[in-house]
Request: fold
Amino acid sequence: MKENSSLITVRHLSKTYHMGDVEVHALRGVSLEIARGEFAAIMGASGSGKSTFMNIVGCLDVPSKGEYLLDGVDIGKLDRDQLAGIRNEKIGFVFQGFNLLSRTSALENVELPMFYKNVSNAYRRDHAMEALKIVGLEDRWHHLPNQLSGGQQQRVAIARALVNDPSIILADEPTGNLDSRTSVEVMDIFQQLNEKGITVVLVTHEPDIAEYTKRNIIFKDGKIRKDTHVERSANAAQKLKDLPALLDDEEEDAA
Amino acid sequence: MNIRNILKVALRSLGRNKMRSFLTMLGIIIGVGAVIAMMAIGQGAQYNIEQQIATLGTNVLLIFPGSSNQGGVRGGMGSMTSLTADDLEAIKTQCPSVNVAAPVIRTGGQVVFGEQNWGTSIMGSNPEYFIIRSWPLALGQSFTEADVRGATKVCVLGQTVADNLFKGGNAVGSVIRIKKMPFRVVGVLSPKGQSAQGSDQDDIVIAPYTTVQKKLMGVTFLGTIMLSAVSDQAMTDAQAQITELLRVRHRIQPWEDADFTVRSQTEIASAAEATTQVLTILLASIASISLLVGGIGIMNIMLVSVTERTREIGIRMSIGARGRDILLQFLVEAVVLSMAGGLIGVLLGIGSSLLISNLAGWPTLVSTTSIGLAFLFSAAVGIFFGFYPARKAAQLNPIDALRYE
Reply:
């Protein structure tokens, strides 16, 4: 793994929305590099432009001005279908609201990204099962989202993000809908994934969540205000051991 | 996404809203069912007429008197009294291409035997009539040429009349009363069934035309003259000979319209066939309007479905679904709906055609063409009306779709 090669390069990125006659400048010239294997948190108050930045990095949106290179590919030159292909192969999304398909089993939710790729049914099933194993939910593969707790749903979503071996996992407020213990559990998974070399970028407004990452990028008014390296990241696994033990069925009820 | 997986997803999402899917299909079911049933009725009628044309005899000609014109009021074809018994004799003797000729004069009236009575149509003709119509007698015999000359009060009964007056008893030799006048029954005709126009041809009493003219109606003209040419090839010659003869006899100047019309039986029947063809097209097009309405129903429910599943579309797009994946997913759903509806509709159409022919006694004919056509049309309706909602789904912006509540 090339530790120092840049995975994400953005230069002078700006995004302007037109809401009626009013122009909203969500991003005002953001330049940033994120290297392979990094674990970064993007922070900021609401309206700071962090979500817009994430949408552009996630190829869900295109910038009004500026340049974005993902893995050496100039995203600005791609059309809708090519962007969909990038999202499918290079990016794994984790959302605040989990965004699992309802009335669809955990396994099928994880399989979903592979439906838009040419793979055999057997490969798809095996691969999805492996991803579920990574997040520790292999024995719940047949459960529907409404039969899983919030933390478990988010783990299914992480498995779905992982399944196509993406270059980067983008998580938008992944702990926003979870209680503090489950949040730590989810951060534990992200830390484990990062240790395996997967690049993770997450958006959060909670400083204690950002502590688990290695780099904090703070947005304000559409610009980067502060970009700091975290000297000593908190260890989620350690934190979990320190927390009072929770009975399994209580966790179930939390759903 | 391969087509098998798309189909699986479509079936599953339709299965989640079973009632809604069924109601949406109902529009197509009724539409396709109606098209097939209507076409079965139309084509059944058409087939019936074709069958009759085949049995009519191709060498039969009919002479109709022209329309009357009294003070500008035109009475329509056959209302004129221009044909006479002398015309009939002249045709018989002077037209070499004519084989036999029979006059036809019709009236109606009550026929009575004992305590039974029956309202029927009464026809006057001559013995040749039974030859031209190739209509044999079941019992007794026909009245004779002598009966015609003498205007004797004898008659031949159609099967329906015989059944109603004699209730299975022997009619031949009995005396019935037609318009209070006694007539001796000399024969009973074999059953002939329905005419091309659907009337019962056996509901008739046939007597010598002279008797009908003098005793029953008090007139001297003839209704129509029916004749057969010596051969199929002689039809045109016969038609020309008759036209020329009658124009001379009726003293019609070359610039005037004739007061009669000569038509072949097959001409009349094919006119009837053309009418039923128009009827078939008309019925089918009315029925296909319901198919169109069914299609609009599909479009409506697909639009609702796209709105309901905006978030799902957003999720699918965020993990890499392209526009055409989404388009195909919704299009396949619409086509599955319409084709399943079409299939059930075909069964419904066949079932109701059978029911119609059993209950109403109408002849129906379900052709494979009409089944194929209706089924293809239903699939086309699915594609046509499913495309707009599917395209709407495919063009959604992933971010907006993901944020949709």
